[in-house]
Write a structure and sequence with these properties.
- InterPro entries: PHP_domain (IPR052018), Pol/His_phosphatase_N (IPR003141), Pol/histidinol_Pase-like (IPR016195).
- This is Putative metal-dependent phosphoesterase TrpH.
- One of its GO terms (molecular function) is 5'-3' DNA exonuclease activity.
- By secondary structure, this protein is an alpha/beta fold.
- It has 2 domains: about 10-115, Immunoglobulin-like; about 120-420, Metal-dependent hydrolases (TIM Barrel).
- It is about 35% helix and about 25% strand.
- It contains 13 helices and 19 strands.
- The strands form 4 sheets. Strands 11-10-9-17-18-19 form a 6-stranded mixed beta sheet, with helices on both faces. Strands 12-13-14-15-16 form a 5-stranded mixed beta sheet.
- Helix 2 (about 140-150) packs across helix 3 (about 165-175) and helix 2 runs antiparallel to helix 11 (about 390-410).
- The chain is globular, with a radius of gyration of 25 Å.
- The chain starts with 7 loop residues before the first strand and ends with a helix.
- The model has no long low-confidence stretch (mean pLDDT about 95).
Amino acid sequence: MYEYWNYYDVTPRMVPADWESTVTIRPRFTHAKFPPADRIKVRVIPLDDGVREGGPEPLRGWELDADGALRIRANFTGEQEYNLTLELTEPGNREADEWALRARETLRFNVYSLRADFYERRPFKGDFHMHSWCSDGREAPEYVAARNREEGFDFIAVTDHHRYAPSLQAIRVWCELPTDLKLFPGEEVHSPDNPVHIINFGGSFSVNELARSGEERYRREVAAIAETLGTEVRDRFAVAASEWVFDRIREGGGLAVFCHPYWQTEAYVINEGITTAILNRRRFDALELIGGFYKHQWRSNNFQIARYGEERAGGNAFPVVGLSDSHGTDTGALFGWYYTVVLAKSDRLEDLVEAVRNGFCCAVEHVEGGIPRVFGEFRMVKYISFLLESYFPRHKALCRTEGALMSEALAGSNRAVEALKMLAGSVAAYRESCFR
């Protein structure tokens, strides 16, 4: 459904469930102006819970303001998506009427009514598995950050193999230049003799460095964990080492992500016994459900999705995220293909971590040239699917402008720096306008 997202401002996009609210639709350009009120028919249509027999219609009234904005009052019952449908009727004299070419056109705008636990949260698009040239990526960490903003991300962490410092480098550079992109510390953890890859998102210290600099302690503590594992656990060292890493990440206030269990080279990088034990014991915070795989590696993500479904069916539910594992933002692959939408109370680290740990997130796959697919708890999937169509297009357009200026600022443009200062807060203002 084409919604003319660039032609109109729709505020709010999200409304409280079971309240009467007023939604304002304001044309942004002259070619989007509404015809006179007597040529507009307004309908408010709930997608999930239609008007019950004998029940009241959702529409309470509407008016066309002198400034050309359409205001629609409706009772938005339940948590669901609503179509606001505008039917433009036939003019009396087509030849003399400036609206003749738009006769009988139908415009549709969508809003979502939310229960309180969702309404108090805001949507943030993030990726926290990516690499710079400080490991096996292609670009400087600060450039990776700029390109991610251009792609529409609200928050990221650069997570190089074995290295925590590159994420701090990106933070340091952008602390001195104006941007609303949130950058956090991170690393991909490879603890000694452990084949399991784990993301440390937001932790206050490097777990890689802790394991390397204190390897004797690491091995002693891993051995102690291994002693507690049941006899059914294969590869006890790898499972125990992974749990040691998960615990250290949480000690630093970070999010511990179990990465790509079905990654395949000549064989699976970790065997089924390790995967099963880690999933069953649930010491991680989130599973990287999708991400990191090129089109010819489609089976790996498929297997992870199928395994996630089986685990949930068996009562083992856990949060899932989508992460790109990008090794270059200009390579034409992986970058922007996989990401996470988080519903959090703010974009502060502690709120993002809380949201993911408590399952207020979905993994999104949007491989170039394909259609988006959203994975997670069903209620969340429905809402985030709406956001992908009705909220994120304008959001991405705003981020794209800021990201392009960030790249120019890195290249030395003082004009870009000044323009960034003028744009500061634009994305946040848009976000809040969608709720107020």
